[in-house]
Amino acid sequence: MSYEPPTPPSSLPTDLVNTLNEYTPERLHDVATYAEELAEHKEREARLQEEGDRDKVEERPDDLPDDVPAKATITIKEINDNRYYYWQWRDGDKIRSQYKGPVTPDE
Prior knowledge:
Layout lengths: L13 H9 L2 H29 L19 E7 L2 E10 L2 E9 L5
Keywords: Plasmid
Protein name: DUF6788 domain-containing protein
InterPro entries: DUF6788
């Protein structure tokens, strides 16, 4: 790791960079975790919206529970350094999730 401070991306607004430079390491870790989760959420919403816009009906997977709609997709969430599969789908304005199982290392 370098002893020099990192160079911020040019796409970040100066006021945001200045604010982040004032934060403690603990708060920066919180911001980084939140930013990563927010980015994943927005990507997931965009993907679900795109998939919802498709008119084709896809075949229902064999391992899909009865209470999960066929349009659901599988996503991976990391919780306490463990990775888990979740079914996710759009229900009106909300994103719904249902636990599927752990991600095994050999997959």
